[in-house]
Amino acid sequence: MKVFLGGARGSFPVSGEDTLKFGGETFALLIEGEDGTQLLVDAGSGVQRLRERLRPGATLLFTHTHLDHLIGLPALTECWPAVMVSPRGGLADVLERVFSPPVWPVRLPAAEFAMPSEPFAAGGLRVSWREVAHPDGCVAYRVDEAAGGASVVVATDIEWQAMTAEEQEGFVEFARGAGLVVFDGQFAPEEYGERRGWGHSTWGDAVEVGGRCGAGRVWVVHHAPGRGDGELEGMGRQVGMVAGGVEVVMAGSGAVWSCGG
Asked: At residue 203, what are phi and psi to the nearest 5 degrees?
């Protein structure tokens, strides 16, 4: 299994000299199995970085349908997914509203819309999910590959401190032993008090989750749009001082992970 991060930004895309290292594209992530199966998680503006690798006919998993997670869909016309998945349902209706005048002049291309009720297989990859705390609802995904023993958990929009102890423990068990955990860290711990209820976590929460679930590596993502490279590098140093035995990094557009490396 290989994982490619197309965009790590949250809320809306940004550009400028102070975003060159971590990128300004909103969230999109590509998972490739050993058999070539491709799963795209969300379609933020970061899909533009993935187009050269992405093939037509992939499966697109939506965590939720806020605009920053689907704004890149028009860039996929030459590598359009065959299946679009939302366990929460209603996906076709939402996308048809976006892909219609006067919002967008091009109609939504054909695809199968799936609302699975239980874990499913895509090639050699097994996909499961869990509801997490975020305004309007959201899911986190887990993708496991039996062939190489690889696993990745993607929780890009999650307000960890809004979840009950029982819900947190359920998520920890869901993510237990994952080789890679991709986790929302939009806020610094000291910022959270004024942003409670906004639907996002802190880098401290990401460190906690990584330690509790025994993750091999944690990518902190969904960076605030106003946060430049220097500030993110500083946060990365803070993370390194408290992460203990867990490898936690502030991930940026273009990051790559492979099982065992």
From this structure: -65, -25
CB 161 within 8 A of CB 201: yes
Positive or negative CA dihedral for 163, 63, 129, 174?
Answer: negative
- Kindly report, residue by residue over 50-70, the tens digit of the pLDDT: 999 999 999 999 999 999 999
What tokens were used for 187?
Answer: 């806020």
Tokens describing residue 137: 């609802």
State how far the Cα of 114 lies from the Cα of 120, in Å rounded to an integer. Answer: 11
Residue type, 246: V
Q: Classify 12 as helix, strand or coil.
A: coil
Whole-angstrom Cα distance, residue 19 to residue 95?
A: 29
242, amino acid identity: V
Superfamily name and number for 2-258: Ribonuclease Z/Hydroxyacylglutathione hydrolase-like (3.60.15.10)
Sort residue 197 into left (φ over 0), alpha (ψ -120 to 50) or beta. Answer: left
161, with CB counted inside 10 A (0-12, 13-18, 19+), is middle
Quick: pLDDT tens for 28-39.
999 999 999 999
Question: Could you tell me the residue ranges of all domains in the chain?
Answer: 2-258
